[in-house]
């Protein structure tokens, strides 16, 4: 059982995330095996346009390659991670909220894309379990809406 403190977990996940960011360019250079250690399999990728279950390492990496190829169309040349927030859910799960900007050759920001990533540690290190592209048109990245739930009683 993981008995690390919240501070220790945040530090651990922050180091993991920095390592992940350093490995991402491998998608464009073909150094794919390095990336396999960052993903749980199966992994779920969710956006407003659909949800895809990636059932093996090859599907996960191909999904990322497709995403990066689409982002690197003629106008979009470079992705920049603009900052992130780590939220510890429990000793084995956390979320990372991050926003990426795509820039043209002159450094002008063309698009901002926020992501929410669910990580889990099943005993062999932190892995991405679900990656969700937030939809700015739904204000998903701006302000969560607090909903009131009716009281629910479980048991007798």
Please describe the topology of this protein.
Blueprint: H1 6-23, H2 26-29, H3 33-36, E1 39-47, E2 50-54, H4 57-71, E3 78-90, E4 93-103, E5 109-121, E6 126-133
Parallel strand pairs: 1-6
Antiparallel strand pairs: 1-2, 3-4, 4-5, 5-6
Domain DUF6841: 12-132
InterPro entries: DUF6841, NTF2-like_dom_sf
Protein name: DUF6841 domain-containing protein
Relevant terms:
single chain, 156 residues, alpha+beta, Nuclear Transport Factor 2, Chain: A, 6-stranded mixed sheet, 4 helices, 38% strand, globular, DUF6841, NTF2-like_dom_sf, DUF6841 domain-containing protein
Description:
The chain is of the alpha+beta class and 156 residues long. It has one domain (3-133): Nuclear Transport Factor 2, Chain: A (Roll), CATH 3.10.450. Helices cover 26% and strands 38% of the residues. The protein contains 4 helices and 6 strands. A 6-stranded mixed sheet has the order 2-1-6-5-4-3, covered by helices on one side. Strand 4 and strand 5 (109-121) form a beta hairpin. The mean pLDDT is 80.
């Amino acid at each position: 059982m993981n008995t690390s403190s919240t501070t220790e977990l945040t530090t651990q996940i922050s180091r993991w995330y920095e390592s992940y960011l350093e490995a991402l360019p491998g998608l464009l250079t073909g150094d794919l095996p390095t990336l396999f250690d960052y993903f749980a399999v199966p992994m779920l990728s969710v956006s407003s346009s659909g949800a895809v279950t990636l059932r093996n390492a090859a599907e996960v990496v191909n999904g990322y390659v497709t995403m990066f190829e689409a982002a690197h169309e003629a106008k979009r040349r470079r992705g920049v991670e603009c900052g992130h927030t780590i939220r510890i859910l429990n000793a084995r799960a956390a979320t990372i909220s991050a926003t990426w900007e795509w820039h043209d050759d002159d450094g002008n920001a063309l698009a901002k894309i926020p992501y929410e990533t669910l990580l889990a540690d099943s005993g062999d290190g932190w892995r991405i379990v679900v990656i969700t592209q937030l939809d700015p048109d739904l204000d998903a990245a701006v302000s969560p809406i607090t909903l009131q739930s009716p009281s629910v009683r479980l048991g007798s």
